[in-house]
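Batch 3, record 17
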Amino acid sequence: MQFNSNAPIYQQIADHLCDLIVANVYGDGERIPSVRDFAAVLEVNPNTVARSYAYLLELGIVENQRGIGYFAAREASKIIKAIKRASFYERELPALVKTMKALDISVEELTASLEGAFDETL
Amino acid sequence: MQFNSNAPIYQQIADHLCDLIVANVYGDGERIPSVRDFAAVLEVNPNTVARSYAYLLELGIVENQRGIGYFAAREASKIIKAIKRASFYERELPALVKTMKALDISVEELTASLEGAFDETL
Amino acid sequence: MQFNSNAPIYQQIADHLCDLIVANVYGDGERIPSVRDFAAVLEVNPNTVARSYAYLLELGIVENQRGIGYFAAREASKIIKAIKRASFYERELPALVKTMKALDISVEELTASLEGAFDETL
Amino acid sequence: MQFNSNAPIYQQIADHLCDLIVANVYGDGERIPSVRDFAAVLEVNPNTVARSYAYLLELGIVENQRGIGYFAAREASKIIKAIKRASFYERELPALVKTMKALDISVEELTASLEGAFDETL
DNA sequence: GTGGTCTAGACCACC
DNA sequence: GTGGTCTAGACCACA
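Prediction for the assembled complex:
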């Protein structure tokens, strides 16, 4: 894993873990790597991974069993998608509309570009 | 003006000024407010406005006449649109495609949502 | 049994066992389950149950007969109540008073709430 | 300030700051000490204070102005009281009822004890 | 100056 | 072994 983005590493790790859960690498309710193990894999300080886990704990995406470890929540992938969906429709979509208006891009124009880009990344 | 976003204030100011230029409040080649005046209006530290202007200077959107003040570049609005367009197609659109795939949102679904949102903000 | 609370599991187990003794499920002087059996029932690590028993041993609530097992003390339920009473009047009550003052809750207000809650849990 | 309790220091600091806000030492909307300053006063690592502030930020009790500092939220004391009240009625009160039943303490008995304790701490 | 993040290393309670 | 907390010290972007 690479940390190119400007976003804080702990968030990138959290996002990455969400991807892994949605991709069923760690299924709902399954144990996820220990803080220390994951830190070793990612070549990152354990505190940073701990911060990611604490963040996901707040969101209800992971859970915690004392002295045992962290687990994906029972409905983790559902929660993740719900959160992403909400953020998409409430934040990204309005921003998209604003940009399109500023640039005089019509819905049709965007649709065309999207269809092209959609196929490329198949 | 409000600074609700997480983006740095100097960028929010720069964006805002670009909007004003595109909206012809300050036409291409016209003088824009002095750093101090603008800072007073925005209730912001003058250093912050100075940083915004420096940023726009790099992009060629504003120009500087020693001892006189800052001016919108001759083709400012054209440059602004070009920059936004590039960033849109190279950065935002791929990100959009990625998000849509992660959330199983089809182009049709997005188009529908967009048309609704487009009309609301008329 | 569920371990929802933030308290350490070994304490929750100890509390639970005290409840069982007071409720006469295990009478004063009677044998209580072996560490292994209880651990199996609670789906918990045997070390954790052992720690609970050690804790209750210190308090004089359970006793240990070498090679045979653990027993509730002869006056176990009396001891339990005495301990709870002491902790109630010395720790919980002062904390309650402090909270009530901070929240401007009068004795009358609390009494009313209590009577409602008391009946619900009959 | 002393840190005798078993609770994490960052929470004790957060609680303490809430007390100060409710007591109007830092009024609603006013600036609170910088992370470094407060850490120096409390003789604690700045990271620990930062953690307290981050915690209060989540709860909406304090706010944040980039590069300037932390401020008590506009309705900070109101929010604090609401949170305490909710936790009191949803968590402490049921626990109190449970303890009272276990110890055969009647509402009348508690009321009497409370009134005594109330006056002492005037 | 401010806060935000990260690293390193330590100690603790718990299972 | 696990996570939780704290310290120390560093670097960064921002105002």
